[in-house]
Design goal:
Its main location: secreted. InterPro entries: C1q_dom, Cerebellin_Synaptic_Org, Tumour_necrosis_fac-like_dom. It comes from Mytilus coruscus (Sea mussel). Keywords: Coiled coil, Secreted, Signal. With about 290 residues, the chain is an alpha+beta fold. The chain folds into 3 domains: about 100 residues; about 40 residues, no CATH class; about 140 residues, Sandwich (Jelly Rolls), CATH 2.60.120.40. It contains 2 helices and 16 strands. The protein has a 5-stranded antiparallel sheet with strand order 6-4-16-8-11, with no helix packed on it. A 4-stranded antiparallel sheet has the order 7-12-9-10, covered by helices on one side. It has a 3-stranded antiparallel sheet with strand order 1-2-3, with no helix packed on it. The chain is elongated and about 155 Å long. The protein starts with a helix and ends with a strand.
């Protein structure tokens, strides 16, 4: 009886011990599961780090490839310029040695004009045109109207603008003015935005950049790696608020030098290039 009574007294404690043992076992299982998850997450984290490192290396490789392609494009532009000059030179030689034969009925009008003693010039149709009688009048007329011709063989000048917006350019982003209107001398590349100097001399370079609303832009005008001018455009946080910044430099450059516009830090604004606001880049040789 006493033994039964003792067992009944110890039974609740034994039951509690058993329950505690079960709880400890469950906690151990949970800890093992969490440890397995931590190990799995650690392995996954290491794999992600390797992927990020690989992508970073690929990004650097692509940047180097882009730089190499830009240099190659500039070199091809320069070679194209040299070839065009050579072709033009050959054309001049051929035209100076060739003989153009025409029928007697197709002579130039200038050979059929008659000049009267009073300084009035007539063509075959009898149209009377006032002609300067004296050397002074001839020089005055030349100053007023000029020669009427531009020597495109020796003139170097370019003008281009952006046809699309450039949103939020990052640091060291080079602007490309893709719409070329003037490119005498073929020194400007619409693919890279770089002007490569075809012949050494003193040049004028000018630019105009429009900043879109809600942000700022930061750009340098460089000759090779040297900064010659900088601009900072900022607009207030107001709808349809735009900013226009421009600059002009005069610089002596050598053949093969590169002139371009590049951002010197991340831009929060947009460089505009559309119908109402065209960002432009231009230059010409003085001598």
């Amino acid at each position: 009886m006493e033994t039964l009574y003792c067992v009944m007294l110890l039974l609740p404690g034994l039951m509690a011990a058993v329950d505690m043992q079960k709880e400890i076992s469950e906690i151990r299982n949970i800890l093992q599961q969490q440890e397995s998850q931590i190990i799995s997450l650690r392995d996954e984290n290491q794999a992600i780090r390797k992927d990020v490192s690989r992508l970073h290396m690929e990004k650097q490789s692509l940047k180097m490839e882009v730089r190499s392609l830009r240099k190659h494009a500039d070199r091809l532009d320069f070679e194209n310029l040299a070839l065009k000059k050579e072709v033009d030179s050959l054309g001049l030689i051929i035209s100076s040695t060739g003989v153009k034969r025409t029928n007697g009925t197709h002579h130039q009008i200038e050979h059929n004009k008659e000049v009267s003693r009073i300084g009035v010039m007539k063509d075959k149709k009898g149209i009377r045109n006032r002609y300067p009688k004296t050397r002074r009048e001839q020089l005055k007329a030349k100053r007023l109207i000029g020669t009427g011709q531009v020597n495109t063989q020796t003139t170097t000048a370019f003008y281009a603008y952006m046809s699309t917006n450039e949103p939020h350019p990052s640091t060291h982003h080079q602007l490309i003015f893709d719409e070329v209107k003037t490119n005498l001398g073929n020194g400007y590349s619409k693919f890279t935005g770089t002007f490569t100097v075809p012949t050494a001399g003193v040049y004028v370079f000018t630019y105009k950049l429009y900043t879109g609303n809600h942000g700022a832009i930061h750009f340098d005008l460089l000759v090779n790696d040297a900064i010659y001018d900088s601009t900072y455009g900022e607009t207030d946080d107001v709808s349809a608020d735009f900013d226009s910044d421009s600059g002009t430099i005069v610089v002596a450059v050598n053949q093969g030098d590169n002139v371009y516009l590049r951002s010197y830090e991340d831009c929060t604004g947009t460089v505009l290039g559309y119908r109402k606001a065209k960002s432009t880049f231009a230059g010409w040789k003085l001598n």
